[in-house]
Amino acid sequence: MQKKQASSVIFPVTIALIAALVMVTVVLYFANPVFFYYVAPCVLIVCVLAAVFLVRISRNTYAYLNGMGQRLKLIQRSASFDYPASIAITDVNGQILWGNELFETLWSNSVVNKSFYGNFISDLFPDLTTTRINESDCVDLSTQDHFYKIIIRKDTKEDIPFLVLHIMDITPLRKLEIEYRMSRPSVMYVCIDNYGELLENARESQKSHIIGEINKLFEDLIAQTTGIMKKLTNDKYMIILEERHLMQLIERRMNVLDKARAIMVGDRMHVTLSIGVGRFAGTLAESEQMARQALDMAFGRGGDQAAVKTQNGYEFYGGISKGIEKQTKVKTRMIAKAVTEFAVNSDKVIIMGHKFGDLDSLGASIGLTRAFRNMGIPTFIAVNRYKNLASVLIDHLTESGNGDFFVMPDEILGTITPRTLLIIVDTHNPDFVEDERVYRACKTVIVIDHHRKMVEHIDNAIVWHHEAFASSTSEMVTELIQYFGNKATIGPQEAEALLSGIMLDTKNFTIKTGVRTFEAAAVLRKIGADTVAVRRLFSSSIDSYQRKSRLVASAEIYKKCAIAISDFTSDDLRIVAPQAADELLGITDVDASFVLYENNGGVNLSARSMGAINVQIIMEMMGGGGHQTMAGAQLANTTTESVRLMLLESIDRYFNSLQSAD
Fold first, then answer.
1. In this predicted model, what pLDDT tens digit does every residue of 183-239 receive, in sequence order?
2. Could you write out the DSSP letters of every residue in 478-511?
3. I want to staple 551 with a disulfide (CB 3.0 to 4.6 A). Which of 8, 18, 339, 580 is the partner?
4. Distances (CA, A) of 193 to 129, 167, 393
5. 3-class DSSP assignment, residue 70
6. What pTM does this model have?
């Protein structure tokens, strides 16, 4: 091959040179015959010598190239054998054709008493299948306690294609990488939810015992790690942990929450913690900021839980207890002062609840509207009259001459100015508000809500009044109105609207009812709220009652959860379904209820609980949310059977998480 290539270059040059000399000689013959006879012999001699020298050069060139080729082959073979990594050649099926000495050593250390010739690479690396070696250029594998990077080169030019595998042992690098990840620090904030209540009525000896038990809990936690702990205030701690120990704590599903709950004060009160963790942050400062946000999220969801924030979102652990009710109303008084200042300085106030507003959403809106109007502030409620679950309350106010309270969102959208104040009640998720256009158009926003905090929440509110322990937004508004001032009074009708909201969310004062709930109800009763008139707001037609009974009769029981699926459609199904869910809780051995019904090509869920099961967590698994005892979800482009199977899976996951925590 090399000789042929050398000749193909030298011989054409020789022939061209001789031809040129001959042509010059012939031309000379015609030009000067006498001179031709002198020149012709010389030209002949030159041509002969040139041919001889060119042939000799050709031979020397061939000898040089041939020798160089032999040397290169030796260098290639030496490189293959001496290359500081294992090399193996296989066919496309993974059968080993050849391997260098390092590969032979690797094979003998892993596959005992077996030569690699004729065997398959999968005998050494079970995960390196035929499909994988033919479709990948680089593969990371591990065997026993070693890690390997395999670079695959394919040669398909030959008649029989083969693969060249460069197998590099990257164990030291991988172990260094693992150590780097495991030693990354994360910031954790721990706060005692009910520190003030724990020590309020305790004797001095009990206080010392309680504080000692809490400190011992944290000291035992740190003693098992290489972390550090700093007590910031009496009820707040900062802990810095390496990833290796934080991972173990998460695998135990933050069982420090259960250990804290085991510390009791007297016969009834338990110690509960809220934990915020910033994980997988780029810097320690970023982790600290993420931990603060996670702690705020844990507070907003009612406490007694841990929120772990990463770059991809939040993970939650715990949250099985009810929110801790705060006895002090200092925060309420401060919020009321801030709200009134913003309202007085605005040109008008718009109050807006959530989509398909209920008695709590409308009741809170009506109470605020009357209070602000009595203060001389133009106030309106942005609500869709035709897509509302509290139309009976709207009709009741309209008949009494207060129909101007309610304005369609499309009508009020054009009146918004930079000085307009928007108060959002009974929701804090921008996707759930009555009309998102109104929310986006208003520059000044206040949020008043009692639902447990969701990841997707309104983040531009100038006042954020959020208390997850409150029974309802109507309860929170009733407290605020008392601090608005002497002019901010409400009448019996507005008091009845607020009381209806409280009764709806507490299921007639049976669920999530605290001391402050009864105090708010007493204030409304003193104003003149008629409980009989409020009860009429909950009445339904005989047809609605029959549809509710039909849903209840179709229920099945699964792990103390009643699940009912609607096989019919009606205009009032959004009202009937929650009522049926409430009714199902009256069945023996039912701790939670779920009602499914089709809506606009999707499926809606209404979930209720008596408190033993946290339906909020189950609904969050399905893309919804809500409260511990009242939640829901909306799933688009699906069927009731698919949602039913998803619900059963979510219930299983919920109970499995509780077992893991135990």
1. 999 999 999 988 877 777 777 777 888 888 888 898 888 988 999 999 999 889 999
2. HHHHTTS-SS----HHHHHHHHHHHHHHHTTTTS
3. 580
4. 54, 55, 37
5. helix
6. 0.65
